[in-house]
Each structure stands twice: as structure tokens, then as C-alpha cells.
Design goal:
77% helix, mainly alpha
């Protein structure tokens, strides 16, 4: 290392120098090091662009469609590759994405119900329609805000975790090792996480809905409306199709967030910033995809008369 340091300084600052008092071994070592060709300069990392933050731009969109095709093929081949499907990962992911996220879901759901009820109560009171705040908040939570907020929480907690875990494996070349051993990384790494998220998302949506209804009830009871009247309004105006539609949205949002998170991890590059960029792309892409899918499903439900 010392010889390399001296030769590099020599190459940068002047001609060949002489060593006074150096032993024959040191002089021979310097001679050998001088014969080594110059190393290529290290590439400078480009600055982070907006396309990096949303997952890479149009090329990433094409790669995302290709990854979605790989996931569909892996689902079709699952019966012949059942040994590669790790049930332990499925249970662990369900615990992290569902059980451990429930306190946060309940907290945000309660706060959202409080805020919606309080903000709606102010204008509705002018028309003597205080009681109809229960209908407004309940339908809004069950049809839209419950699945949407649950998906946002999932993208922030679990989507980024998927990208970081799989991205670290990609950087450490563990995924390349799986491919070398004949193991399909999509079946082994993606499908357990995708299945677990799809299963726990309806539970998270229901938990957020119930917490939001509880927060709404606290505000309306404080306004003097009895609990029986609130329950009557909710059961009268909220149909079963509203609940089923919200749960279906939650499953679709969960599948999108999990797929985008896993795809961001599988597409991780090299360098110290790679895993961080993948986690950022997973969160941003998951939230954007959730909102886009929510708008698309709203149009579909409207055309179907739900």
C-alpha cells in the first residue's frame, strides 16, 4: 500500500523520483509497481433526478410491466414450484404488515374520523343536518378513505421494507446465487410477500373503518347526538356493497404496493445510494399507483352502479 501511494504521488506530481537510503527490496518493489498500468478513474455518481424518485421514468414503467408479467407467470407455475414458496416468509410478512401495523392504523383511523366529523359538523349544523354527518363520514371511510389510507400506511411501512430487503439481497448478489442454484427469485421472494399483503389488507381496512367510526361517534356524542341515532343512520345508509367494494379496493391496493415494492428491490443498482433510492421509489410509486387505481376503480364502480 505504501509503494502504491508513493507511485501514485509520483505520477500525479512529477517525473520518476529516486529513493535515498532504500533497501534493494524496497527499490525492486517500487520498480514493479511502476510497471502496473494506471487504473481507470472511479465513475462519479450522477445527481438524484426526479425520475429516480418516481422509479426511473418511462423505462422503469416498461420494466414494471415486464416484472408484472414475470409475477403472473410465477403464479401460473406455482403448482410445479411449490417447494420454492416459503410459507415462513408469508407468515412473517403477514405479522409485520398486518399485526404490527394495526396500532398505527387504529390511531390514524381514529384521528381521521375525529377530523372528518368535526369539519363536517360545522357547515352541516347551519342547516340543522347534524345527524347526517354520520352518513357522510361512514360512507366516505368505508368506500374510499379506509382502503386508501391503509394502502398509504402499507406503502410507507411495508413497501419500503420490501424494497430494502430485496435490494440488499441484490447488492450482496444473493439473488444471483439463487438463479445460479436454479431457484426462481420471483417465486421465492415476491409471491410470499404479495400473498401476505393481499390477505392482510382487508383486515387493515376494516380496522381503520372501525377506528374512524369510533372517532366520529365521539365527536357526534359530544354534540348531543345519541349513539342509537348514529348507529341507525349508519346501518340505514351504508350498504353491504359499500363494504365489499372497499375491501376489494384494499386488496387491489395491497397487491399494487407489494408488487411495486418488490420490483423496486429487484431493480436495485450498485453503490451506497442504491438501496435508499429503491426504498424511495417503492414508497412514491406505491402511493401514486394507489391513487391512480382508486380513480380508475371509482369510474368502474360508477359505471356498474355501485
Amino acid at each position: 500500500a505504501g509503494a502504491i501511494l508513493l507511485v501514485e504521488a509520483e505520477r500525479l506530481h512529477g517525473p520518476v523520483t529516486t529513493m535515498a537510503g532504500a533497501s534493494e527490496q524496497v527499490a525492486e518493489l517500487l520498480t514493479q509497481v511502476r510497471k502496473v498500468p494506471l487504473a481507470a478513474p472511479r465513475p462519479v455518481s450522477p445527481p438524484v433526478s426526479w425520475s429516480d424518485l418516481i422509479g426511473g421514468g418511462p423505462r422503469a414503467a416498461v420494466n414494471g410491466v415486464a416484472f408484472l408479467g414475470e409475477v403472473v407467470l410465477a403464479i401460473g407455475r406455482l403448482p410445479t414450484r411449490a417447494r420454492m414458496f416459503r410459507r415462513v416468509d408469508l407468515l412473517r410478512t403477514a405479522d409485520q404488515a398486518g399485526v404490527r401495523a394495526m396500532p398505527l392504523v387504529v390511531l390514524l383511523g381514529t384521528l381521521m374520523g375525529l377530523i372528518l366529523a368535526f369539519q363536517s359538523l360545522i357547515p352541516m349544523r347551519r342547516f340543522g343536518a347534524d345527524l347526517y354527518v354520520a352518513d357522510l363520514v361512514a360512507i366516505g371511510l368505508i368506500r374510499e378513505l379506509g382502503p386508501l389510507l391503509a394502502a398509504v400506511i402499507l406503502a410507507g411501512r411495508t413497501g419500503s421494507a420490501f424494497a430494502a430487503e430485496i435490494g440488499t439481497m441484490k447488492v450482496n448478489q444473493e439473488i444471483d446465487a439463487l438463479v445460479t442454484m436454479g431457484v426462481d427469485p420471483v417465486t421465492m421472494l415476491v409471491l410470499p410477500r404479495l400473498t401476505a399483503v393481499v390477505l392482510v389488507m382487508p383486515v387493515l381496512a376494516i380496522g381503520l373503518d372501525l377506528a374512524g367510526l369510533l372517532g366520529m361517534t365521539l365527536v357526534l356524542v359530544g354534540d348531543g347526538i345519541p349513539v342509537a341515532a348514529i348507529a341507525s343512520q349508519v346501518t340505514q345508509w351504508v350498504a353491504a356493497s359499500d363494504l365489499y367494494g372497499g375491501l376489494f379496493k384494499a386488496m387491489v391496493f395491497g397487491a399494487a404496493v407489494a408488487t411495486i415494492g418488490c420490483r423496486a428491490g429487484m431493480a436495485t443498482g450498485v453503490g451506497p445510494r442504491a438501496v435508499g433510492l429503491s426504498a424511495t421509489a417503492a414508497v412514491v410509486g406505491g402511493i401514486v399507483a394507489t391513487i391512480a387505481l382508486d380513480g380508475l376503480l371509482a369510474i368502474v364502480f360508477y359505471r356498474l352502479g355501485w
